Amino acid sequence: MRFKWSPDRQLLASGRNDNRLLVWNQSCSTSIQTYTDHTAAVKAIAWSPHQQGLLVSGGGTADRHIRFWNTLTAQNLQCIDTGSQVCNLAWSKHSNELVSTHGYSQNQIIPTLYPTMLQLARLTGHTFRILYLAVSPDGESIVTGAGDETLRFWNVSTKCRANKESDSITKVFLKIVKLPEEYLLAPLSMAA
């Protein structure tokens, strides 16, 4: 299950493995909205810091869609087929850009301009599903962690892209860090 508070801390969104996205008011013990459009587990959730009530969710391998919701009116605003599992979503702090990370089959990072859904780049380098995404405090870069046991640091801000040469979008990769053995998860064993 995934959880995200709205920027005003009044609503909580939860994405579930039963393909449902729920919105909760902190004063209620039951959900106030339920969205059932995803056809696989809801793997990612993010509230827009730029538009009140705008919630975005991403579906797993059998779904592959990013869906935009207006929680003020309970409407589905937009749906985009990404072609691969959506693992993480994060909004830019400075502009109306959404960063999505993906798993099978493309293992990529895609910064996208909302609401036009213009893809600003397709960042590749991970060889397995991108499990983790964190935005730096200044909003200028992100770090991703994947099943390939690496952390990758990326410069994704509009300001930084505007200051670089036109071909630099393919050079936004900054650094790869191989995780030490003590940080790796041991594979789960199955009882016979």
UniProtKB/TrEMBL annotation:
Top-level lineage group: Eukaryota
InterPro entries listed in its UniProt record: Cdc20/Fizzy, WD40/YVTN_repeat-like_dom_sf, WD40_CDC20-Fz, WD40_repeat_CS, WD40_repeat_dom_sf, WD40_rpt
GO molecular function term, any single one: ubiquitin ligase activator activity
Entry's Gene Ontology cellular component terms: anaphase-promoting complex
Keywords: Cell cycle, Repeat, WD repeat
GO biological process: anaphase-promoting complex-dependent catabolic process; positive regulation of anaphase-promoting complex-dependent catabolic process
Pfam families in the record: WD40_CDC20-Fz (PF24807)
N-terminal signal peptide: none
WD repeats: 1-34, 123-158
Domain CDC20/Fizzy WD40 per the UniProt entry, residue ranges: 3-154
PROSITE patterns found in the cross-reference section: WD_REPEATS_1, WD_REPEATS_2, WD_REPEATS_REGION
Family that this chain belongs to: Belongs to the WD repeat CDC20/Fizzy family.
The protein, known as: CDC20/Fizzy WD40 domain-containing protein
Originating species: Didymodactylos carnosus
Taxonomic lineage from the root: Eukaryota, Metazoa, Spiralia, Gnathifera, Rotifera
